Amino acid sequence: MGMPQTVEQWTAAMVRALPDDGKRYECVDGELFVTPAPRLLHQRAVRELFLRLHAFLVEQPVGEALWSPADIEFDPRTLVQPDVFVVPVGAGRPRTWEDIGGRLLLAVEVLSPTTARADRVVKRRKYQRAGVPEYWVVDLDARLVERWRPGDERPELLMERLSWRPDPARPGLEIELGVFFEAVLGE
């Protein structure tokens, strides 16, 4: 099955109806984004972030760490697949992707050559408008993490340590970025 005819405004339902061809399909405010399968270093970064987040959330159970593919729908014209994300736990713990409905504590994207504009601009703005408390953009080439919060006009650039404290009443997560990038890049 080929790609559908070009449309002016994509919806989450239209994206879900696309063929399963190994590519990642997302739409943000009606704009379609298609990316190829991620490269090996990208997947290592996703794994390393997930493992660190998961271990932290076992000790501090404020959320559940997950990874894509996933269909996170913020509204009928927005369906995203963050590389790694954290959903809240508790009485309303999601059982399906539809239950999440954009309720994220954290969204993380690992940059790829084909995703930089979408990750840094389009998705970032959507996550900020949706009130996602933190959005991290991991830049493997620059060996840094951009941290965005809802009101930020510029990112906080982190090169040494990444701290995340989703609940001020509990201890936070500390990631030594040198150790993280060494694990991902094999240096």
Task: Provide a short characterization of the protein structure.
The chain has helices spanning 12-16, 40-59, 97-100, 116-129, 177-185, and strands at 24-28, 31-35, 63-67, 72-75, 78-80, 84-88, 106-110, 134-139, 144-148, 156-158, 161-164, 173-176. It has 187 residues and is α+β, with helices and mostly antiparallel strands.
Structure write-up:
It is a single chain. This protein is of the alpha+beta class. The protein has one domain (39-185): tt1808, chain A (Alpha-Beta Complex), CATH 3.90.1570. The chain is built from five helices and twelve strands. Strands 3-6-7-8-9-10 form a six-stranded mixed β-sheet, sandwiched between helices. It is globular and about 45 Å long. The relative contact order is 0.14.
Using brief descriptors, characterize the structure shown.
globular; tt1808, chain A; alpha+beta; six-stranded mixed β-sheet; two-stranded antiparallel sheet; 187 residues; 12 strands; 5 helices
**Beta-strand percentage?**
25-35%
Structural classification: alpha+beta
CATH superfamily: tt1808, chain A
Distance between the termini: 42 Å
Helix content: 25-40%
The strand line-up of the biggest sheet is 3-6-7-8-9-10
Main sheet properties:
6 strands, mixed
Rg computed from alpha carbons, rounded to a whole number of angstroms: 16 Å
Name of the CATH class? Alpha Beta
Gross geometry: globular
Number of domains: 1
CATH topology: tt1808, chain A
Q: Which residue ranges are poorly predicted, with pLDDT under 50 across at least 5 consecutive positions?
A: none
Number of helices: 5
Mean pLDDT, all residues? 89
List how many beta strands DSSP finds: 12
Please trace the helix and strand order, writing H or E for each element.
HEEHEEEEHEHEEEEEH
Q: Please name the CATH architecture.
A: Alpha-Beta Complex
